[in-house]
Specification:
With 184 residues, this protein is α+β, with helices and mostly antiparallel strands. The protein has one domain: Roll (Nuclear Transport Factor 2, Chain: A), CATH 3.10.450. The chain contains 4 helices and 4 strands. Strand 1 and strand 2 form a beta hairpin. Helix 2 packs antiparallel against helix 3.
Length: 184
């Protein structure tokens, strides 16, 4: 039982080291700025991540997502997506971006204002591709957010984003068919 846990920890450590080797050096945060840790449940595959610092550029997916959710919590949907899609091809598609913003505003109306978020999973594929899954906390219901990042040249960029309320996927449960979906 302990051997599989040790192997998983070793693989995560190696993947994390490979990602850090690809990153640009970060500026050190100002000495008076405390770094906040986001608590992650023990079952999650990735360690807690520091909140973004205003002292330097955002350099990794965790910081990009933290900045995004921070702006969403302030009801700044336009600024949140501008920050998230900076340098991305998604930013070059104004109609798709407009639809994303509209759907996000609609979700906030239906499920309530976003008051926080948790990292659920990080999946690393090679040294340049990462998928992070988060759950945002709405007033009445959580949402699952999947962010796909690619690092072709030393800079992480969002290449895809999926948002839904299908929480069974987080628990590795098969999605159940609803009565309204069943056909005679």
């Amino acid at each position: 039982m302990k051997a599989p846990i040790a192997i998983v920890c070793a693989v995560l450590l190696l993947a994390s080291s490979a990602l850090r080797a690809q990153e640009k050096p970060r500026e050190k945060p100002h000495a008076t700025m405390p770094r906040m840790q986001v608590p992650v449940p023990a079952a999650a595959e990735a360690p807690a991540v520091a909140a973004p610092s205003t002292a330097g550029p955002i350099t990794d997916p965790a910081q990009i997502v933290a900045a995004f959710f921070s702006l969403l919590q302030k009801s700044s949907v336009d600024a949140a997506y501008a920050s998230l899609t900076r340098g991305s091809r998604i930013a070059e598609k104004p109609e798709e971006l407009k639809l994303l913003k509209a759907k996000t505003n609609e979700a906030i109306e239906v499920f309530g204002a976003i008051s926080g978020h948790d990292l659920v999973e990080t999946k690393v594929v090679g040294a340049r591709l990462v998928r992070t899954t988060y759950v945002s906390h709405g007033r009445t219901f959580p949402l699952r957010w999947r962010f796909y990042f690619y690092n072709p040249d030393g800079t992480w960029r969002l290449i895809d984003l999926r948002v839904d309320d299908k929480l069974t996927g987080i628990f590795d449960e098969p999605e159940e068919r609803r009565e309204s979906d069943a056909r005679p």
